[in-house]
Amino acid sequence: MGAAFMMVVVLAVLVNLLQMTGSDIMDTAEHEDGADAFFLAESAIEQAAASWDSGTACVDLDGGVDTSFSEGTFSIDTAVLQTDGQCRVNVTGTVNSAVRKLQADLQRGCDTTGWIVGDSGTINRRISSSWSLSASTVSTSLNAVHCVRKDNAWAVGESSVLLQWDGSVWGTVSSPVTAGFNGVHCVGEDDCWAVGGTGSSGKIARLSGGTWSTSSAPASTDWQAVYCVSSDDCWVVGGKGSNGFVIHWNGSSWSESTTPTSTIWLSVHCSGSSNCWVVGGKGNSGEAIQWDGATWTEDASISPSADTIWRGIYCVSNNDCWLVGGKGGKGATLHWNGSAWSEVSNPVSDRWNSVHCVATDDCWAAGDSGSSGSIIHWDGTSWSASTPASSANWNGVHITQPTAVIEWSEVVQ
User: Fold this and answer.
1) What does 232-283 look like in DSSP terms, one character per residue?
2) Stretch (H or E) spanning 149
3) CA torsion angle for 87, 45, 400, 286 (degrees, to 10)?
4) For residue 382, what is the DSSP state?
5) Are 180 and 142 within 8 A, CB to CB?
6) Which residues in 111-139 are b (16+ Cβ under 10 Å) and which e?
7) Pick from 359, 346, 345, 379: which is nearest to 314 by CA?
8) d(Cα 85, Cα 78) in Å, to the nearest integer?
9) pLDDT for the residue numbered 111
10) For residue 330, what pLDDT is reported?
C-alpha cells in the first residue's frame, strides 16, 4: 500500500513537471511575440516621426494599411495634430496573437539647426557645432526668428519684413501690414504670429491657411514679443511711452490682461498655461511679472532692477528659467530655480537681447555691444562664448532639436 501510494505521488509529480515545462515553453514563446510586437510598435512611431520630419502632414501619417515584416506587422492607426503643435499618433504592433498598442506625442524640430538674426539683414545658421553665414534677401534689421522644422523657418524685422526659409534659401513674403516686426512665434507650420508696430500703433499678423492676414488687438501699442503655449493660448506684450500692455489670445479673439505694474514689456515666455513670465523695463530699471494661470504678480526681487532692462526670458520648466538683458554695453544673465533669481556670470559684457533653450544644459543668448554682437552658450555648468560666422548686432536666436518623441505610453487593452 505504501509502495503504491509512493508510485502515485511520483507519477503526479512527473505529470506536473511535464505540464509546467510545456507551459514555460508556451509562456516563453508568447513573451517573445509580445516583445517583438512592442518593437514593431516602436518602429511604427519612428516611421511616423521620420515621415512628419520629411514634410508629411500630421493627419496624413495614418496610412490605413499594415506594414508587413517577417516577424509580423505594424500600423499607424491615427494621427492628430494637437493645439500645442505636437502630433499624437496611435500605433499597433502585431506578432502572431500578440498585439501591442502605443500612443506617442511627436515634436517637430529643425534637425541640428539654429538661427541668429541681426542688423543689416544678417543671418547665421548653426549646423552641428559651427555657425555659417546664410544669404539674406534684405538689408534691414532682423529682430526675431523661429524655426518650425528644418525646411521651414521665419525671420521678421523692420520695414514689414517677413522672410521664410524653405530648406535652401530665404525668400521674402508679402506682409499684410505696414510695420516694423519685433517678434514671431509658430505653434505649427501653418499657425504663426508676427507682432510689431509703426511707432504710433501696434500691428499683429497671423499665418493661417498658407496666408498672412491682419489680426485686430484691443490695445494700440508697439508690440514687442509673442509666445503661444498652444493655438488657443497665446500672449503678446509691448508698450509705448511709459505704458505697457499684455494681451491674450483664446483661440478666437484677443483680450487685454491686467498687470500689477506698467512698463515697456519686451519679452514673454511660458513653460505651461499656468506659468508665464513677462519682462521689460524703461529708463534705468527693469521689471518682471509672473502669471499663475489666473493673475499676474510682480516679482519684487528683480523689479525694479537698477541699470538693467530685461530683454529676453526663456523657461525650460517652472523651476528652470533664464533672464537676460542689459543697458548700454553691459549685460546680465540671471537664473530662476523655482523660488529665487541668481546672477550667473558670463564671459562677455554685451547687452543680451534674446535667449533660447533646447534643454536645461543647452541654452543660447544673443546680444550686442552697440558696434558688434556676441553669442554665448550654456552647457549646464557655465556660459561660454560662441563665435558666429559674421559680425552683427544680434537681436534674435532660435535653436531647436531634431524631430523627437516627447512622450509615449502603452495603451492598455
Assistant:
1) TEEEEEEEETTEEEEEEE-SS-EEE---SS---EEEEEEEETTEEEEEEEET
2) strand 142-149
3) 50
4) -
5) no
6) bebbbbbbbebbbbbbeeeebeebebebe
7) 359
8) 16
9) 62
10) 80
Grid cell locating 223: 508690440
β-sheet bridge partners, residue 172? 163
Q: How far is CA 338 from CA 53, 173, 315, 320, 335, in A?
A: 34, 41, 10, 7, 9
Kindly tell me if the per-residue pLDDT of 69 is higher than 50.
yes
* 367 torsion bin: left (phi>0), alpha (psi -120 to 50), beta (else): beta
pLDDT value of position 52: 77
Amino acid symbol at 219 = A
pTM: 0.81
Residue of 153, 142, 209, 221 lying closest to 176 (CA atoms) = 209
Residue for grid cell 556660459: 383
Burial level of 82, CB count in 10 A (0-12/13-18/19+)? middle
pLDDT band at 9 (very low <50, low <70, confident <90, very high): very low
Retrieve residue 77's grid coordinates.
492607426
What whole-number distance in Å separates Cα of residue 281 and Cα of residue 304? 8
User: Residues for the chain: how many in total?
Assistant: 413
